[in-house]
Amino acid sequence: MSSLNNKTILLVEDEIVIGTSEKKQLEILGYKVVWVTNGHDAFNEVKNYHDRIDLILMDIDLGEGIDGTETAKEILKNFDIPVLFLSSHTEKEIVDKTEKITSYGYLVKNSGITVLDASIKMAFKLFEANRKEKIKSQALLESELKYRRLIDNSPDILYIFSSTRGGIFYSPRVEALLGYKLDYLYSNPFLWNKSIHLDDIEQVKRSIQQSSKSKSFSVEYRILDASGSWRWFHDRSIEQRTIDNEIIIEGIVSDITERKRTEKAIKLNEARLESLLRINQHPAQNVQALLDFVLDEAIKLTESKIGYIYFYSEEKEEFVLNTWSKEVMNQCKTVERQTIYKLEKTGIWGEAVRQRKPIMINDFLKDNPLKKGFPQGHAALNKFLTIPVFSGGQIVSVVGVANKHYDYDESDIRQLTLMMDYVWKIVQRKKIEYELIEAKESAEKANRSKSLFLANMSHELRTPMNGIIGFTNLLELSGLNPEQKEFNRMIKKSSNRLLEIINDLLDFSKLESKKLKIDNKPFDIINEVEHSKNMIYSEIISKGLELKTEIDTNINFCVIGDPLRFKQILLNLLSNAIKFTNSGNIYIKLSLLSNNSDNVRIQLSITDEGIGIPASKLDDIFEMFHQLDETYSKRYGGTGLGLTITKSLVDLMGGNISVVSKVNAGSTFTVELPFLAVRQTIKNKAI
């Protein structure tokens, strides 16, 4: 690092990003940097500290106040400091404008640290030469040598091109970027033009034609290098002039191939993720409809025209067509469209399975020994890509796309493979979902049929059972002897038990088929408790139990609801308590939980001192046909539907039911029900 770098530079730059970059580069080069963002601050900085500032690096286009050229004029009126202009432009007008102000020229922004270093050093040298008025020719020679080194060491290609003579100068960098020797390029002066991609040539021509007015252009295009690969370049002119109808352009070309690859990869990744999101959210009713949509997305992702999806069986070595794109269906005029293919009979499209890897062909019309021809009327192909889809190490599907407007490449293979790998997981999940939905619908249909059957059969059974019970009542009055009375009693008891079972089945079937309706009418809830007690009183006495009741005195009104279903809930819980209690007490408690205007909430609790319920069984106690175990079923009987029906009735009435229990200590079932209150005072019954 020379002693010139131990100096202070005033950087005048209003763009924060560019200023930060330039300041960092200057500091790397060893300069002390004072950075301001506008002409006013620059002038004041020089005015106050001009003896400390060795050079000014001035942005021409300052966004605030006076511009860079006007600022430089004001400074140079009073102070002898070298000014080196910074510019994002290369128009001749700017060059002329800066040369009228200072002899140190201008520097194109972001030219690189090497160019920056050399330019500043050049400015210092020129300043010394001007100030001491000596060795002018030597200073010019050094400047030219530095410029030559800049050209030779630049990461970009500097060129001079003539409209009549072609390329007349290229910097040595062209050999590294394009692979052509300089001698070869000079012997083929129009090779550069001929190597531009056909899809880009018109854009390049338009840019150059438009530059005849602006004297500058900036354009991106592809060039075929010596190895046959396409490289992306950013070409921008430095100067353009016309001499005797010959247009001469001086410019810089930067290699942007990696940037373009990165941009394309990002774009494709975003497109694939968006496509997968659409696939995942697609409301397909079955796997076929989903894969039809997937194929459309695959065609869009690869910018293809047509495509197909085949399922493949490794065991059978057989392809089964899943879906063709609509475009194929429109184009393909074969009389018989085959849907099943044996691997051994497939042509080049089967190579994805045989080689177990993607197959990409960008000149499908070219002869290939793997081809086996087309059926007559088959859709025409010019470019073709097919990939195998793996699941668990097995090929399960093959996806093909064709007729992209430009060549397929590795990014197409990668994106299509990633897409289909994820899609296959979606397909497997969706397939299970569809099967579950179908099974659920089938089960619901069967369940509805079962419920309808139970409803019809229960009704048909209940009618004759009522007749049997009626005749047992008549027989009881007909003067039977003791033995006949016992037989009749047993028939009546069995008939009543069977009728209870039939009633449970009828209620359960109605609940299952959503046919049970809740009535709403005024009733005295305390009276219903009283009636229910009377109905089970004989059972209480026969088991030697005692029934105790506690009624909240605040319940002094009627309610609107279904008295029949309320009584059914109460009787079911009381019968359950009696069944599982061998000795002790059974408690009924009726409480007013809330009383808000006409809306009230009443709690009904039934407590027994019976066998209790194990904690492991509490979560299942309301499930249909549930009983504690087989021994309980044999000993106590019952269908296992009582509590299920009770819970369903409570739910229908908008309430909830819960249970707490302890083995050998009894259980408490608590029901909370909402009602509308009828504000009509009633007298509480003494219970």
Explained architecture:
The structure is a single chain. By secondary structure, the chain is of the alpha+beta class. It is about 45% helix and about 25% strand. The protein contains 20 helices and 23 strands. The radius of gyration is 48 Å and the shape is elongated. It starts with 7 loop residues before the first strand and ends in a 9-residue tail after the last strand. The model is unreliable at about 335 and about 680-685 (pLDDT under 50).
Largest sheet: 7 strands, mixed
The secondary structure category is: alpha+beta
Mean pLDDT: 82
Distance between the termini: 111 Å
The Rg value, from CA coordinates, equals: 48 Å
Strand content: 15-25%
Overall 3D shape: elongated
Low confidence ranges: 333-337, 682-687
Tally of alpha and pi helices: 20
Number of strands: 23
* Proportion of residues in helical segments: 40-55%
In short:
With 687 residues, the chain is α+β, with helices and mostly antiparallel strands.
Features:
20 helices; 7-stranded mixed beta sheet; 687 residues; disordered C terminus; single chain; elongated; 6-stranded antiparallel beta sheet
Which helices and strands, and how do they pair?
Layout: E1 8-12, H1 16-28, E2 32-36, H2 39-49, E3 55-59, H3 68-78, E4 83-87, H4 92-101, E5 106-108, H5 113-132, H6 136-153, E6 157-162, E7 166-170, H7 173-178, H8 182-187, H9 191-194, H10 201-214, E8 218-224, E9 230-243, E10 246-255, H11 257-281, H12 287-301, E11 306-313, E12 318-324, H13 326-331, E13 340-342, H14 351-354, E14 359-361, E15 384-391, E16 394-402, H15 410-476, H16 482-512, E17 521-523, H17 525-542, E18 546-551, E19 558-561, H18 563-579, E20 585-596, E21 599-608, H19 630-636, H20 642-652, E22 656-662, E23 666-678
Parallel strand pairs: 1-2, 1-3, 3-4, 4-5, 18-20
Antiparallel strand pairs: 6-7, 6-10, 8-9, 9-10, 11-12, 11-16, 12-13, 14-15, 15-16, 17-19, 19-23, 20-21, 21-23, 22-23
